[in-house]
Design goal:
about 270 residues
């Protein structure tokens, strides 16, 4: 729906694109209704009946929403700082971040999403050893799967950007800027993937505040670092600070998780 809507958009009107996004969301919902309703008794009362898990959901939701809000503040801060650089840099940054999100979705979220319910079951059963084993295995699988993609971005950043984006107003200077940004973002990909898993592990234990506070503290350092070296680093400053922030984030969460679960053996996992 979104791709089709592009053909109806003009430089003077983006309304077809808005309609495409809305139509795509509606189609996504409609396509899921029938399979989701299969075997599920639909009762209006069921949605109104109290459930013992609701207070726990509410307790976890606050810090999680705060953490997501921190991410939006980070994006806003980065865009404000990048607005002082050359024309077109923000567009290049948006495109490169979408490119970076591809391996994170294919690997980081793909490993974290099915692992979190398993960790929750182990925590509920009090099986700390199995919790630690599954988390350690998930961390290693996640890093092993994303490392080749990260290496590709480091070794062939210029070629990747050139193939995907070099056309129209996106010229050679834009390619050079975007390739430099991609190269610095690539360092942080394994750390971001690990952060997904460790944050999920804390949530599985009913702890949402710790990852949120770590994230907020690092965001403050991230913005300060961007501001301090942006003039010298130019387009590389923001992605490098992003990568460093997630590396520290992953190390901090791994250390905190190891303190709560001695069975995790964080030093051994880090070495592996």
């Amino acid at each position: 729906a979104i791709i089709v809507s592009v053909y109806f958009a003009t430089p003077r009107s983006v309304h077809p694109l808005v309609a495409g996004v809305l139509a795509g969301g509606l189609l996504q919902l409609l396509l899921q209704l029938k399979p989701m309703s299969s075997g599920v008794p639909w009762r209006a009362r069921a949605a109104l009946e109290p459930h013992e898990g609701l207070p726990e959901i509410g307790r976890l939701l606050g810090p999680l929403a705060f953490s997501l809000g921190v991410t939006q503040v980070q994006i806003l801060g980065e865009r404000m700082l990048a607005s002082g650089l050359a024309d077109g840099v923000i567009t290049s940054m948006n495109l490169v971040q979408k490119l970076v999100n591809l391996p994170l979705g294919l690997v980081g979220m793909a490993v974290a999403a099915p692992l979190m319910p398993a960790l929750s079951r182990h925590e509920a059963a009090g099986d700390r050893a199995q919790f630690a084993r599954d988390l350690a295995r998930g961390l290693l699988i996640s890093v092993a799967a994303i490392a080749p993609l990260s290496a590709l971005c480091l070794v062939a950043s210029d070629e990747v950007v050139r193939v995907l984006f070099l056309r129209g107003a996106f010229g050679e200077q834009s390619v050079a800027d975007a390739a430099r940004m991609l190269w610095h973002y690539a360092f942080g990909l394994p750390a971001v993937s690990v952060t997904f898993l460790l944050t999920g592990a804390f949530l599985a234990q009913g702890i949402a505040t710790t990852p949120a506070l770590v994230r907020a503290g690092l965001l403050t350092a991230n913005i300060a670092l961007n501001w301090a070296w942006l003039e010298r680093m130019q387009v590389a400053g923001i992605p490098l600070a992003w990568s460093l922030m997630y590396m520290v984030n992953a190390l901090a969460l791994l250390w905190l998780a190891s303190r709560r679960h001695a069975e995790l053996k964080g030093a051994r996992v880090l070495a592996a």
